[in-house]
Amino acid sequence: MSLVNRILKGVRNLTLASILALSVGCSSSSKVNTPSYVPQTKTYQEQNSNASLENLEEYLYSELAKRVDVNKTTTKPPTGQENAVDDLELRQNIYGQYYLTWSYKNVGDYNQDGIVDVKDVTPLAIYFGKESPLMPPMGWVPGPFWRGDWVDGNKDGIINVQDVTPLAANFGNECAGYKVQIYLNPETPGYEWDEIGFNLADPGFGRKRFWFHKLTGETIKPGMTFYVYPMDSEGCIYDTVASNRVTVP
Ligand SMILES: [Ca+2]
Ligand SMILES: [Ca+2]
Predict the structure, then answer these.
(1) pLDDT of 195-247, one tens digit each?
(2) C-alpha distances in angstroms, 28 versus 33, 34, 36?
């Protein structure tokens, strides 16, 4: 079934009863007629027992039906403050050469493939009911490189059906990489220095990470300031928000 048809089906299913039933992970159609609000205090096990990929997908389509213009198929880069990089760092390697590094941010892209779409429901089903940030693999210590919160779209500390809403709100957002911008000094306007493609992101074991090594000792001077913007596949950064800035000491 095409996305448009699934969304239209979502419209047909968009009744108060069905939303309430799905919002508590109810998979039985017989329960749709007797919805009841279950507060956040419901245990993780109870929520997990009712979470299915199908239920989450249907809830997503219902959410999309309320938001998406089904005739509009264009993508756009991740916009807004919630998608702005906030951990850009300027570091030096053992040879004294500077490089930039930052974490990938694209709310709703739960499978971290660069685009927010229906495939991002699958990680929700996998991690459903778990606390966020998710624990790193055995032997890894939580730290700046481990930001296991990429599936927790609403940042409430738990992976559940409420993380469908941020997915729907950002549906279609595409991050094809980042543009690296620079201020030569505080008195001059910033301009585009270079860019890095999404395919070069380090998958790691948690949130994807970018490492930008195209800074050379000859050109990097004290006072230079760097920041990054997410871009879509057309290089568009319209309405995106710049990262934090880092300055060469
Ligand atoms: Ca995705
Ligand atoms: Ca959440």
Answers:
(1) 999 999 998 767 899 999 988 766 788 889 999 999 999 998 888 999 999 99
(2) 10, 11, 13
Residue 144: other Cβ atoms inside 10 A: 10
Starting from the CA of residue 151, give the closest ligand: 2
Give 204 Cα–ligand 2 centroid separation in angstroms.
22
Give the distance (Å) from ligand 1 centre to CA of residue 116. 4
DSSP state of 32: T
Cα-to-centroid distance, 64 and ligand 2 (Å): 18
Per residue in 236-245, pLDDT tens?
888 899 999 9
Q: How far is the CA of 118 from the centre of ligand 1 (A)?
A: 8
Q: Which domains does the chain have, with CATH numbers?
A: 3-67 (no CATH), 74-106+175-249 (2.60.40.10)
